[in-house]
Amino acid sequence: MKPQLKLKNLLPLLLIGITFIANEVKSQSKMPIHIGFKGGANFSNLSLSNSNLDSKYSLGYHGGMFTRINISKLYVQAELLYAQKKSKMENSAIGTKQAKWNSIEVPVLIGYKLLQSDNVNLRVFGGGVYSYVLNDKASVLKKVSQSFQKFDKSNAGYQVGAGVDIGKLTLDLKYEGALTSITKEFKAKPDSFQASIGFVIF
Question: Are residues 128 and 172 located together in one domain of the fold?
Answer without folding.
Answer: yes
